[in-house]
Amino acid sequence: MNFPPIKDQLDSITRNVVEIISVEELERKLQFSEKKGQPLRIKLGADPSRPDLHLGHSVVLRKLRDFQELGHQAILIIGDFTAMIGDPSGKSKTRPQLSAEEARENGKSYFEQASKILDPEKTTICYNADWLGKMGFADVVRLASHYTVARMLERDDFERRYRSQEPISIHEFLYPLAQGMDSVHLKNDVELGGTDQKFNLLVGRDLQREYGIAPQVCITMALLVGTDGKEKMSKSLGNAISFNDPPEEMYGRLLSIPDSLIKNYCSANNVLNITSSEIQENPRNAKRKLALEIVTQYYNCEAAAKAQEHFDQLFVHKKAPDHIELFELEQQSISIIDLLVTLGAAVTKSEARRMIQQKSVLIDERKIEEITEIIEVGEVPKTVKAGKRKFYRVAEKKRFE
Predict the structure, then answer these.
(1) What is the distance between the alpha carbons of residues 87 and 234, in angstroms, rounded to a whole number?
(2) Most confident of 74-88, 159-173, 272-286
(3) 301 and 169 inside one domain
(4) What is the CATH number of the domain that holds 374?
(5) 356 and 266, same structural domain?
(6) Which range (82-86, 152-156, 306-310, 365-369) has the least confidence?
(7) Domain interval for residue 338
(8) Own/partner long-range contacts of 360-367 (Cβ < 8 Å, ≥24 apart)
(9) Is 241 within a domain?
(10) Which tens digits make up the pLDDT trace of 116-148?
(11) Is there a single domain that holds both residue 96 and residue 190?
């Protein structure tokens, strides 16, 4: 198999990375790969704690795509078994564990979503329950013997929690060991992850060495800051832009990011047609180009153009959308909380309450002030606005005698 020259490969691999442990080992692996005509095995783990991917995940997925384009083998692991433990990375308290059914269900759509970036024909997908689930208690004891508590407490989040007397469950120590066993099982050459995964990646490197396998090269990527401009992108923090967000929602949320993040979002999403001087001179136009480009990447040019037109109609021309979906309800009256959940404007009742408390819910241009309000539906459609971009029409379902 023919690969690009080593220098060209290194230029592509090292672009936008935070750290490589180590570059010298990576170069040696590339040289061996070229000599043998054998692609390197590149591992990326996905934690199915939630059923969807967001732009924060795209950073490492694009690096995995870089390896694919260089001719190497991409291995995407769905951590359905490790999700039952719960990744403690960056957590200040014990993370809730998922059941096997929840983890597998959340993992079902990951490959389809990741294929918006990866070449699905060149991607191997694995579920780590296939090997970790077969380990007996004796196997786990032998695995645990390879790491000490002292080494575990070198991890930043464990150390912070230990010093502040926050509880650390023993099963949390098993998470990096289980992730490391993925590397032992797969015998991969490289593992990718965000900077918050560095400890886990190094454990995998150590365990490969302990089990007589050539240690993996660890490559970390920067964490993408969410739309709030403060915390890393996360669905649980409400600052994420998901791969499956509708085009209008994706476009609008991209325009809401702070100006200081435009360059980072360009780099993370491989948007190369926006210069630093353009960002500095006119950040609003730069964000519009960024949003248009990213929506095009995840959908197409037509969807992106319609999303931009939709945004302009709402926020530039201050008009409601031309076409608003009509929901016909069986009941004549309904609480505003239940209405928002029924329409899909809010996922949970607590989210619906928060939207009302933030004064972001309007019915026929009347701002809803009370979370206990009852809405009389009626046969004449009412327009419901939830937040800045969500519009609905509701009416009582017509009954025929």
Answers:
(1) 14
(2) 272-286
(3) no
(4) 3.10.290.10
(5) no
(6) 82-86
(7) 326-396
(8) 360/386, 360/387, 360/388, 361/336, 361/385, 361/386
(9) no
(10) 999 999 999 898 989 999 999 999 999 999 888
(11) yes
- Domain count for the chain, please give it: 3
Considering only the C-alpha atoms of the chain, give the largest distance between any 2 of them, rounded to a whole number of Å. 80
400: pLDDT strictly greater than 60: no
Written as one letter, the residue type at 337 is: I
Write down the H helix ranges in 117-246.
Answer: 129-132, 137-144, 149-152, 156-163, 170-186, 198-210
91 and 42 fall within a common domain: yes
Q: Which residue, 316, 337, 361, sits at the end of a domain?
A: 316
Q: Do 133 and 15 share a domain, yes or no?
A: yes
Q: Which of 258, 288, 316 is the last residue of a domain?
A: 316
* Residue 138 in tokens: 């004796």
- Pairing state of beta strands 41-46 and 190-194? parallel
**Which one-letter DSSP state was computed for residue 316?**
I
For the beta carbon of residue 112, count every other beta carbon within 10 angstroms.
12
**Token pair listed for 98:** 């998922």
CB atoms within 10 A of CB 274: 18
First to last CA, the chain: 73
User: Are residues 259 and 167 located together in one domain of the fold?
Assistant: no
Q: Are residues 183 and 270 in the same domain?
A: no
Rounded to 10 degrees, the C-alpha dihedral 338/342/344/346 comes to: 10
DSSP state of 312: I
Strands 333-335 and 374-376: what pairing?
antiparallel
pLDDT digits (tens, 9 = 90+) for 89-106: 554 444 556 676 777 777
Question: Does 173 share its domain with 55?
Answer: yes
Asked if pLDDT for residue 169 goes beyond 90, the answer is no
Q: Residue 60 in contact with residue 109, Cβ under 8 Å?
A: no
Angle, helices 55-69 vs 6-14, to 10°: value is 180
